[in-house]
Specification:
By secondary structure, this protein is of the alpha/beta class. The chain folds into two domains: 38-109, Beta Barrel (Elongation Factor Tu (Ef-tu), domain 3), CATH 2.40.30; 116-381, Alpha/Beta hydrolase fold, catalytic domain (Rossmann fold), CATH 3.40.50. Helices cover 31% and strands 25% of the residues. It has eleven helices and 14 strands. It has helices spanning 2-28, 171-176, 207-219, 232-243, 262-272, 277-287, 293-296, 304-307, 334-342, 360-363, 365-381, and strands at residues 38-44, 49-53, 64-68, 73-83, 87-97, 105-109, 124-130, 133-140, 152-157, 180-184, 224-230, 250-256, 320-325, 347-352. An eight-stranded mixed β-sheet has the order 7-8-10-9-11-12-13-14, sandwiched between helices. A six-stranded antiparallel barrel has the order 1-2-5-4-3-6. Helix 1 (2-28) crosses helix 6 and helix 5 crosses helix 6 (277-287). The termini are far apart. The model has no long low-confidence stretch (mean pLDDT 95). It comes from Glaciibacter psychrotolerans. This is Pimeloyl-ACP methyl ester carboxylesterase. It holds the Pfam family Abhydrolase_6. One of its GO terms (molecular function) is catalytic activity.
Length: 382
């Protein structure tokens, strides 16, 4: 009996260790491709409608992107025309490319615009010299030509496992406010050069590429810079504001669905996967220590305390606009609320109730755009 109990305990510990290793490696490894996870039930292209599997995202009103057939096509979907507990029918606003009529699976996205040409706005393809090589970016001028000399720039930073197209939704409000926008790429995002280990640093390393973007902006006329980050991009711009060489030129930060405390996000994801709480705690330990390198492939451990902006709230020095939905589904809003409560002198918190993760603009563009416009006006008046 003792031997049997010991064997079971060993097997349990081994299984737990495997789960911890897999979770840690998954968090820091860029996905090779995104998976289609929404079933297409019916496409009526003549009527301009698409019926999909009902999911927490597909049931939210608004305007969205829909990648289908393994990214072989992209469509823009609008209003909900009908729904039941299992399906939702939405208006097809446009098919950008691909054959939607033959699609069987797809994935929901906040991407409505595929590039600056989709807005459409004038833009320039530029290269930013980073530690790993030349990283492509889009430079977009303000709406009024006279504002181009103002020195007001915004650097837009996308989140994990997506690309700079994610940030295009913010371009118009910044352009109208007189800002030059720089939509950047960073290591391991599929556009910029890979890091040597090809692993995410969750903001602890990527900020250096945004530091390089800040150098670029200053060399091309920027005097005052607002950093905007989406999801993991939020963690990245916060580190940039705290650690960049020229951080004195950063005058404000805008955050959409940001990661404020990675430990909380990893724990939340573990709960969604119905894993024991010890798996998430163990994954943080693996990613945060040098001995974890053999399991994750990281070249250096991640300093999770340095990434915890709730604990480091006192270090913030510039105004922050923080937008987050309480039904996010990926990054809990609790850390955003906690950070806002700690620094009401600097942080303007704008909550959403049912906008999901990084889709606040898609769900209620008027509220989202109005919040940023008002905050930028206040920033100028300071």
């Amino acid at each position: 009996m003792a031997v049997g109990t010991g064997a079971l305990a060993l097997a349990g510990a081994t299984a737990l260790g495997v789960l911890i290793s897999v979770m840690a490696r998954t968090v820091v490894t860029p996905p090779r491709q995104n998976s289609d996870d929404v079933r297409v039930i019916a496409a009526d292209l003549q009527a301009g409608t698409l019926t999909l599997q009902a999911t927490p995202d597909s049931m939210v009103p608004g305007h969205y992107g829909f990648w289908f057939s393994g990214d072989a096509g992209h469509a823009r979907l609008g209003e909900i025309l009908a729904s039941d507990p299992h399906s939702v029918t939405r208006r097809v606003e446009r098919v950008d490319f691909g054959n939607l009529g033959t699609a069987r699976m797809g994935r929901w996205s906040g991407w409505v615009y595929l590039g600056p040409w989709s807005l459409p706005v004038p833009f320039t393809n530029v290269l930013i010299r980073t530690e790993g090589g030349q990283a492509p970016a889009w430079q977009i001028p303000p709406a009024r030509e006279a504002d181009a000399e103002s020195g007001d720039w915004a650097i837009h930073v996308h989140g994990r496992a997506v690309r700079r197209q994610e940030a295009l939704r913010a371009v118009s409000v910044f352009r109208d406010a007189g800002y030059t926008s720089l939509l950047v790429s960073y290591r391991n995002d599929g556009d910029a050069p890979f890091s040597t280990d090809r692993r995410y640093g969750l903001g602890d390393t990527e900020w250096q590429d945004i530091d390089a973007a800040l150098d670029f902006a200053l060399a091309h006329g920027a005097k005052r810079v607002v950093l905007m980050g989406w999801s993991m991009g939020g963690a990245i711009v916060l580190q940039t504001a705290l650690r960049a060489r020229h951080r004195s030129h950063v005058v404000g930060i805008v955050l959409d669905s940001p990661v404020i405390n990675w430990a909380e996000v990893v724990a939340f994801q573990g709960t969604l996967l119905r894993l024991p709480a010890s798996v998430a705690r163990g994954a943080i330990q693996v990613m945060g220590h040098r001995w974890g390198r053999a399991l994750t492939g990281q070249s250096a451990p991640i300093d999770f305390h340095r990434l915890d902006l709730v604990a480091r709230a006192a270090d913030l020095r510039v105004p922050v606009l923080l937008l987050h939905s309480d039904d996010d589904g990926y990054v809990p809003s609790t850390a955003s609320r906690a950070l806002a409560a700690r620094r009401p002198d600097l942080i303007t918190f704008v909550p959403f109730a049912t906008a999901r993760h990084t889709k606040l603009w898609n769900h209620d563009s008027e509220k989202w755009t109005g919040a940023i416009r008002s905050w930028l006006d206040d920033l100028t008046a300071r």
